[in-house]
Design a protein that fits this description.
single chain; alpha/beta; Rossmann fold; 8-stranded mixed β-sheet; 10 strands; 40% helix; globular; Alpha/Beta hydrolase protein
Length: 376
């Protein structure tokens, strides 16, 4: 009997697909070869935006409970040291969002010493619909200890209230803010990295594409951009390609019963992929569809991938990692597939202990980031 229970971003959920349905998905050749072009192709008849907001509110409440349990396990993760609320400058949908700052030992003394720290700019998961900037505090602890870096986690605006491309533009705006204001916050703009989990891993990649285009626009207008260097991108189980149907991704998994339940993926996609005519191949949404030139010019030299063996997103993450490593792009790609675990396994709502392997892998990721920061 397959295990039909999974965890998504700290929420225990049940995959209602029967073994017969799963076998049918595995045999669906059409699902695996068909490509989607617009949001309408992916969603069909979308629910009302009112229903989506009500449903998102329900799942956000459940997620809060799951993350509360997740944080109880020893060693307790740190709390943010301070926050900054900034106004959006890139998005046409004007508004504000908040950055949560976790600071390493010695940060307070930097007021007197003038020391500058590297910074990891992080984006939480939750299908662009649920989640909070504090969700990755367990990872933050390792960034502080292993990298001696500031961890800046972004509360980007969520869908369905703010569908694509607001999250990507907020993510790029967060980087732009640190490029401009980092020295005032004791952050070295020449030692930046992005990180993210699931949807946030998508943002960790796509925000570099969006920022590169925005900076080019600013330069053409004559604006001077402060010197900066994004050294690395660290992605955990990213979604990279919306042109492939969700059914195809489940069909490709070796454990369809362990993949993200359709209840959630339908909510996430209907919330974020809007309006219906939205083109799914845009690089800010599906970085796997970006050109070689875009990826070469915008993506940092080091790219870190962690994928999960039982995740429906594993193959697309692996494919993008391979593409970035091979000519003509040739990035320094550090890739690891974690065996025997589902999507977001590290956010397990177990109050007694951290998820298996999670702390060792957080430490390994920080080793790569530290290496990137230490390069000349």
């Amino acid at each position: 009997m397959p295990n039909l229970r999974a965890t998504v971003d700290g929420i225990p959920v049940v995959n209602l697909a029967s073994p017969e349905q799963q076998a049918g998905a595995l045999g669906s050749v059409n699902a695996r070869t068909r490509r989607l072009h617009t949001a309408r192709d992916a969603i069909g008849q979308a629910p009302s935006r009112f229903w989506l907001r009500a449903s998102a509110a329900w799942w956000r409440a459940l997620q809060y409970v799951g993350m509360t349990l997740h944080f109880l396990a020893p060693e307790r993760p740190p709390n943010p040291c301070f926050s900054r609320t900034i106004r959006s400058t890139i998005s046409e949908t004007k508004g504000e969002f908040t950055l949560q700052f976790y600071t390493p030992e010695g940060y307070k003394a930097a007021v007197k010493t003038g020391a500058k720290f590297p910074a990891v700019v992080n984006f939480h998961g939750g299908g662009f619909t649920i989640g909070n900037a504090t969700d990755d505090a367990r990872f933050a602890r390792f960034v502080l200890q292993e990298c001696n870096a500031v961890f800046v986690s972004v509360d980007y605006r969520l869908s369905p209230e703010h569908p694509f491309p607001v999250a990507v533009e907020d993510a790029a705006d967060a980087l732009l803010y640190l490029i401009r204001s980092g020295p005032d916050l004791h952050i070295d703009p020449s030692k930046l990295a992005t990180s993210g989990f699931s949807a946030g891993a998508n943002l960790a990649i796509t925000c570099t594409l969006r920022l590169a285009d925005h900076l080019e626009t600013l330069r053409r207008s004559g604006e001077q951009i402060p010197d900066h260097h994004i050294r690395a991108v660290a992605t955990w189980y990213p979604i990279t390609d919306y042109t492939e149907p969700r059914a195809a991704k489940r069909a490709a998994s070796i454990r369809p019963d362990q993949t993200i339940p359709e209840t959630l993926t339908s909510l996430f996609d209907a919330s974020y992929l809007h309006p219906p005519e939205l083109q799914l191949a845009t690089s800010y949404l599906s970085p796997s569809q970006a050109t070689d030139e875009q990826l070469t010019n915008a993506i940092p030299d080091m790219v870190i991938f962690f994928t999960c063996e039982h995740d429906m997103l594993m193959q697309e993450g692996e494919a993008l990692a391979r593409r970035l490593r091979e000519p003509p792009i040739g990035k320094d790609v550090r890739y690891k597939m974690i065996e025997g675990v589902p999507h977001a396994w590290d956010k397990s709502p177990d109050p007694t202990k951290p998820a298996e392997f999670s702390e060792d892998l957080y430490r390994e990721c920080c080793g790569h980031l530290r290496e990137a920061f230490e390069k000349p």
